[in-house]
Amino acid sequence: MLNTYWKHFKSGTDIRGVAIDGVAGEPLDLTDEAVRRMAAGFAVWLSARAGKPAAALTVSVGRDSRISGPRLRDAVTAALTAAGVTVLDCGLASTPAMFMTTVDLGCDGAVQLTASHHPYHRNGLKFFLPSGGLEGSDIEAVLQNAQDGIAPPAASGCCRSVEYMTQYAARLRRLICDGVKAADYDHPLAGFHIVVDAGNGAGGFYASDVLAPLGADVTGSQFLDPDGRFPNHIPNPENEEAMRSVCEAAVRAHADLGVIFDTDVDRAGCVDAAGREINRNRLVALAAAIALEGNAGGTIVTDSITSSGLKTFIENDLGGVHCRFKRGYKNVINEALRRNAAGENCPLAIETSGHAALRENYFLDDGAYLITKIIIKLAQLRAGGRTLDSLIGTLAEPAESVELRFSIREEDFRACGNAVLDGLEACARKQGWQVADDSREGVRVSFGKGEGDGWLLLRLSVHDPVMPLNIESDAAGGCRVIAEKLAGYLRTVRGLELSALDAYLA
Questions:
Q1: CA–CA separation, 302 vs 326, rounded Å?
Q2: Whether the Cβ atoms of residue 209 and residue 165 lie closer than 8 Å to each other
Q3: Cα–Cα distances in Å, from 77 out to 10, 32, 81, 112, 227?
Q4: C-beta of residue 375 within 8 angstroms of C-beta of residue 194
Q5: pTM for the complete prediction?
Q6: Model confidence at 438: pLDDT above 80
Q7: DSSP character for 317?
């Protein structure tokens, strides 16, 4: 059983902690010693999983641009080589590329040092097998080994540097060349102007090593240099400031497309030639349109907060099937894997956050791969005198949307959150509200015209003592109408901090 100290490092299917001291209220806990024990614990776990001694294992190690990355890399490498493991140091790398080392380099496992879009002082460890990322239960087993001080027998391993990102970028270039089939095969993006915003994370390579060699004009690209302090904006496609920044950069450069990555490049968003965001529902719609080509009637798995308009678009306009599932990129990916294993044609799993995993790409959530597919489609459409917008022009988008988050003040926050949800469902049915029968998490309630003309979803966070509330409406002012209806119930329950709701309704 994990004690409190080791348990707090678990964040879903990742390990995360504070790697830089000096931030008030967040003391350093991802110490060298803790990381060494985690790495040794992973080696023990991987040895058992692979059915070979640790001294026969090959493990790749990469990192995003965080300033704590080199220190954590040294700690991981020291622990693995002390167990006889052959370590391939991939240096600055994207998270999806680290998975691909298990495919292209034959690694038994991979470790990426990243905390995704979280602040600069945080960092973490993400693990891969050739079959994909570790599950939450696997992370618990690794941490249990760390807590118990279990390590492989001492042996003498080695570490060597590998320039894998060069190989990874070459693969993306080949995909574009093969997909576009331009007269000038080697320069299919000649005449295209594409702006990349890497947010000073690990995604700068996409401009210099993928787009530019294919003939694209990448002038106006910004924040390509890695800087783990993230001085310009949070590298997160969901962040309003970040999206505004890339929109402005694309418009300023008169670009055909703007692209933005998160820190470790497992998520992406983009901007069309008019400076309009292709993000959240629009990104899901575009990815679905691409994925369903050659997969007529296929199922698109999304997270639970996608709009009603998106469901209509996927099912009525694209002829696919839309499955809403629980938030969390591993949840939607695992559901897609399950459906395919059962014989269902499911080519895409995607979250509105920008995590997109295509079956053709190992169901790996890879922001660079998604953008590559979009660029191929952009080039194909241009050859026919069309634009990306022509693929998603019929997508009905809500007039307004809002997300509020309520902290849970009870110690047993899961019990409290579940009680709130049970009470909401009972209240909704008593009021005659329409409760969705396909909600895979939380409670989703729809409201007709004159009653808010939209929907709400209240759910319990996967990891934190928080209940997020999403509301969308097809009518101006509809979100407030729905929020007022919900407020009547929420103010009767115990354990929720409702200041966000009060501020919204003030």
A1: 8
A2: yes
A3: 21, 11, 6, 12, 22
A4: yes
A5: 0.93
A6: no
A7: I
Residue 123 confidence (pLDDT)? 98
What pLDDT score does 502 carry?
A: 95
Find all residues with CB under 8 Å of 95, minimum gap 6, and list them: 62, 64, 112, 114, 126, 264, 265, 266
Q: Could you give the angle at which helices 32-50 and 69-81 cross, rounded to 10 degrees?
A: 50
Pick the CATH number of 284-367+389-397 from 2.160.20.80, 3.40.120.10, 3.40.190.80, 3.30.470.20: 3.40.120.10
> What does the block give as tokens for 252?
């300023």
215: exposed, middle or buried (C-beta count within 10 Å: 0-12, 13-18, 19+)?
A: middle
- Tens-place pLDDT, residues 392-416: 999 999 999 999 999 999 989 999 9
Residue 492, number of CB atoms within 10 A of its CB: 9
State the CB neighbour count (10 A cutoff) for residue 359.
18
Return the structure tokens found at 411: 């110690």
CB atoms within 10 A of CB 361: 18
Model confidence at 484, in pLDDT bands (50, 70, 90)? Answer: very high
Tell which CATH architecture fits domain 164-279. Answer: 3-Layer(aba) Sandwich (3.40)
Tokens of 337: 């894997």
- Please check whether the two domains, 164-279 and 400-505, share a CATH topology: no
Tens digit of each residue's pLDDT (9 = 90 or more) over 105-163 = 999 999 999 999 999 999 999 999 999 999 999 999 999 999 999 999 999 999 999 99
Superfamily of the domain at 400-505: Alpha-D-phosphohexomutase, C-terminal domain (3.30.310.50)
Count CB neighbours of 219 within 10 A. 12
Nearest 10 degrees: CA dihedral of 34, 38, 39, 42?
170
In contact, 194 and 217? CB cutoff 8 Å: yes
Helix and strand totals (H; E) in the chain: 16, 23
Q: Do 66 and 227 meet the contact criterion of CB atoms below 8 Å apart?
A: no
Closest to 369 (Cα-Cα) out of 203, 181, 193: 203
Per the DSSP assignment, residues forming a β-bridge with 161 are: 89
How many percent of the chain have pLDDT more than 70?
100
* The pair of three-digit structure tokens given for residue 402, joined into one six-digit string: 């809002």
Distance CA 459, CA 456 (A): 10
